[in-house]
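[audit] Reproducing an earlier prediction to check determinism. Same input, same settings, fresh worker. If the tokens differ from the archived copy the diff job will pick it up downstream; this log only records the rerun itself.
[audit] input (202 residues):
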Amino acid sequence: MEIINASFVSSVADLAKCPPPDKPEFAFIGRSNVGKSSLINMLANRKQLAKTSNTPGKTQTINHFIINEHWYLVDLPGYGYASVSKTLKAGFGKIIDNYVLNRENLDCLFVLLDARLEPQKIDLSFLEWAGSAGVPIALIFTKCDKLSANELAKSMKRYQQVLEKNWEEIPPNFMTSSETRRGKEEVLNFIDEVIRNSQENK
């Protein structure tokens, strides 16, 4: 798949105000500073489709973008940032909970993980929560260009060992870099495949 056009649709804090659930939807979520905005811009081949920032918690709403007039890419609030108030954290939790558990046309939730770090407790907790709710998940490891091939292999092995403790089958996963564009084709082809399979099963 190639993204020919991508445009902003809406930015809301209430699930009920999201666009009608009449198109396939793929959402991206992760801890703050995991590189979510940079990854979305890389996939869409746009410099400023999703706003990048060094300030944790920048994304505070459910942001919809229409891709190729055919499917929605959704930029979700991050989780686990330390520099926002407890009140805002609770609000973000509610936004995420409502969207992830109740968005009927969500075909896949991409959970972003920093390949440089040991498996983080908050990431594992989020994966367990979403997985136990039956949400379709795929993993995207970001910033893979920051590691040598050997370091990356060790990191992936650590994650595999941890995930195998709670998952019968590890979700699809992709190694990416917004700098080198690694993984772009694989992620977009996966989205294309999910859309095709969904249409065939209707």
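[audit] rerun output stored. Observation attached for the diff report: Confidence is low (pLDDT under 50) at residues 81-85, 87-92.
[audit] end
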